[in-house]
Amino acid sequence: MPLILHWGGPRHAEVDEVPAESLASSILVYEGPRWYGVYRRFEPVRLQETPHGPAEVWVVRE
After folding, report:
1. Rounded distance, CA 10 to CA 58, Å?
2. Cis bond leading into 51, ω under 30°?
3. Which of 2, 14, 28, 33 has the maximum number of C-beta atoms within 10 A of its C-beta?
4. Distances (CA, A) of 6 to 25, 28, 54
5. Largest separation between any pair of C-alpha atoms in the chain
6. Cross-strand pairs, 16
7. Helix ranges restricted to H, 1-62
């Protein structure tokens, strides 16, 4: 599963695995018991090295 790095918001700098089909859009919406958030793909697309491996940067929408 692809990794994303959250930029901004309550999950700033956290890394998550997400299903590849979730990244088909430039908007990523999380809904679940643990947290809720709306993120957009960083433009231009940027990968950041993390302890879990390279992750694509996604920015919180406010």
Report:
1. 13
2. no
3. 28
4. 16, 11, 13
5. 31
6. 4
7. none
